[in-house]
User: Fold this.
Amino acid sequence: MKILGLETSCDETGVALYDTEQGLLAHALHSQIALHEVYGGVVPELASRDHVRRIIPLVRKVLSEAGVAGSDLDGVAYTAGPGLIGALLVGVSTGRSLAYGWNIPAVAVHHMEGHLLAPMLEEQAPEFPFIALLVSGGHTMLVKVEAVGSYEILGESLDDAAGEAFDKTAKLLGLAYPGGPALSALAEKGDSKRFRFPRPMTDRPGLDFSFSGLKTFAVNTYKKEGDDDQTKADIASAFVEAVVDTLGIKCKRAIQQTGIKTLVAAGGVSANTQLRKRLREICDKEGAEVFYPRPEFCTDNGAMIAYAGALRLQAGAGEALGFEGRARWPLSEL
Ligand code: KG4
Ligand code: ZN
Assistant:
């Protein structure tokens, strides 16, 4: 079964072709970072317009690289939500129209389901059941995954997502958007012991998160301590240490509570080297194994949508001609 996957929920246009027998045949991505950088964040209308410009050339590129014609496909999967509604509608309407034209099924995919299944694209793939730590720009969640479509949310952020906290703190320190990777690099130059940031919500039971306080802590430290280069690096270091520590504590708790010894980390922040190192240490101690997507599939991409769509199609999904994008769409509704 050959499935085309389209991702346009935020600031990346991703297209990929997945074959259930041969694996990933081709994938292509256009990042809008340069487009939004001058504004310090994603401008939704510019994002939508750029998706319109990029999506068809990317579909052509992927099909020609794989040497596959539209008529050889068995389905088109597209991200239907959650995300920026104008951006989503580009992928939704393109996906639905291509499927209609090629007379094949269209499958609406939940963006976070795409992220959480992404590690299964790798040669070293996790097996069900597993605990998924989803850490992206819009979400932070711990999910118990028993099978495709069986998602129990164990905990989630009550305010900012981990990626959002990274981006806001990076902006404060004068780093370019999106600040996550730059903040992580700056943290390597800092002294993580100079400032101690709190580990929010770790002193009480439960698996929920809260990251907005860390950002405030960073602002206050910055105002008080000045903004020389070393201080900035020390703030970055203390911030990263606090986020990584907090995520690590909750992952360990989830493993202990459920007895599930397989952990998956996915979403943009799972590309973070400090987090990867910490989760590996925790899993070693707990006798558990941790799995990640390759770094380019941690952030938004078409491959995870093609893959999730393929699994959904194999399970009998497919939909009527109507379609909608959903800016908000709880994973628990799947
Ligand atoms: O999953 P993603 O591409 O988009 C959403 O669905 O939100 O995640 C993007 C987020 C951004 O906040 C970005 O700063 C963060 O992931 N990110 C990182 C790293 N790479 C991406 N944060 C920390 N360290 C990184 N290496
Ligand atoms: Zn994402």
Q: What stands out?
A: Residues 130 and 329 are 22 Å apart (CA to CA). The radius of gyration is 20 Å. The pocket of KG4 (ligand 1) is lined by residues 10, 136-138, 163, 166-167, 178-181, 184, 267-269, 271-272, 299-300 (CB under 6 Å). The chain has a mean pLDDT of 95.
